[in-house]
Amino acid sequence: MTEFNLIEALRNRSLIHHITNENNLNKIIQNNSISLYCGFDPTSDSLHVGHLLPLITLRRFQIAGHRPIILIGGATSLIGDPSFKEKERIFNTNENVDLWTNKIIKQISCFLDFNCGNNSACLLNNNIWFKKINVLSFLRDVGKYFSINKMINRTAVKQRIIRPDQGISFTEFSYNLLQAYDFFFLNKKHEVLLQIGGADQWGNISSGMHLIHRRCKKEVFGLTIPLLMQDNGMKFGKTESGAIWLDINKTSPYKFYQFWMNIEDIHVYYFLKMFTFIDISEINKREQENKNKKNIISDKSLLAKNITLLVHGKDKLLSVERITDFLFSKKDIHITISDFKQLKQDGIPSVEACQIKDLQDALVKTSLAQSRTQAKNMIISNSISINKQKIRKNHIFNYNDKIFGKFTLLSRGKKHHSLLCW
């Protein structure tokens, strides 16, 4: 294959949390093109930033000459993975799962090449084989290889069992066997040697390896990736608060970009290594040169631009850059009506302006001021702008203040903005 050491590269980018028999896996992928897979359960209509690392890791494998398989959990999403969840998931209907599957497939297609020869990405749905399986055959042919004693002692399960208010249903408990069978099936039908996933999937991945070893006497491998955690210690997920979605209708490209611009300084170079394809020597050089963090904003911008480009494409990135310059630079930037719609969606606070009387009233209703008196003082002190133009006295809004006849940008200082929507 190549002298390039993919496992070493992944480790240098902090993309390995767990890995099984690293030496054997390394030898195999150094000399052969392998098939590997990662599963995505369509339990919502969009992926989120927590899914980016597995997708990017699959892409790294494909660039290195390996064949990535995306497994859509059409069947397993009807059960729900209980791993490290505090309570049971809400069951989804078949209709919703089918609808969400189509949306997620479109998102995934942006990350991998499905037409590049022998290592073209492949997309499968586990509903294809699970709907053909007889429950008695499954319990006999799969269930007999698993010890209840070991399963209930796994951390993800134990955390639920010790909570009398929640517990864990047999439905959720069976999820582990279903995912194990996925690995077994893919190994048998598609010669898959490696499963990757988030660190919370270690128990499910190891169950698949165990089943393959017991039934087929083969060695297969597992690799998990560190979870992306929020500042409150919770992982980013569909059911966790504060999810940043890949769907532009749920999280606008501008808010997506700002998410990366607003990360803690200590994460910048860590994330540049994990989420971007910038040469690691360049990232290390930037980190060394910026120990005093004087230029940290430029490196955050580099991170935000690379990830936004990867997820949303060039046109949306250009839109984000226009909006950013419009809000925060002194340049005379003209943004489009679709840019304003991003701002209204989730970019900055917005209010319906039809009942607003004057500028003082607008400042109060947008919470840029707490009272008309405070608003008056702000205007007099020259800290208020309408569409980036300083206003020195109270103002009655007119048609000229309405960009595209619909939007007015109200600003207090350089950083506080609100959008009036007419």
UniProtKB/TrEMBL annotation:
Q: Which GO terms describe its biological process?
A: tyrosyl-tRNA aminoacylation
Q: Where does ATP bind?
A: 238
Tell me which EC number(s) this protein carries: 6.1.1.1
Q: Which SUPFAM superfamilies match?
A: Alpha-L RNA-binding motif, Nucleotidylyl transferase
One of the entry's Gene Ontology molecular-function terms is:
tyrosine-tRNA ligase activity
Q: Does the keyword Transport apply?
A: no
Q: Which InterPro entries match?
A: aa-tRNA-synth_I_CS (IPR001412), aa-tRNA-synth_Ic (IPR002305), Rossmann-like_a/b/a_fold (IPR014729), S4_RNA-bd_sf (IPR036986), SYY-like_C (IPR054608), Tyr-tRNA-ligase (IPR002307), Tyr-tRNA-ligase_bac-type (IPR024088), Tyr-tRNA-ligase_bac_1 (IPR024107)
Residue limits of the Tyrosine--tRNA ligase SYY-like C-terminal domain? Answer: 339-419
Q: What is its main location?
A: cytoplasm
Record's GO cellular component terms: cytosol
Q: Which Pfam families match?
A: SYY_C-terminal, tRNA-synt_1b
Q: Which family does it belong to?
A: Belongs to the class-I aminoacyl-tRNA synthetase family. TyrS type 1 subfamily.
Assembly notes: Homodimer.
Function, please? Catalyzes the attachment of tyrosine to tRNA(Tyr) in a two-step reaction: tyrosine is first activated by ATP to form Tyr-AMP and then transferred to the acceptor end of tRNA(Tyr).
Q: What is this protein called?
A: Tyrosine--tRNA ligase
Task: List the source organism.
Answer: Buchnera aphidicola
Q: Taxonomic lineage of this organism? A: Bacteria, Pseudomonadati, Pseudomonadota, Gammaproteobacteria, Enterobacterales
Which gene is this protein's source?
tyrS
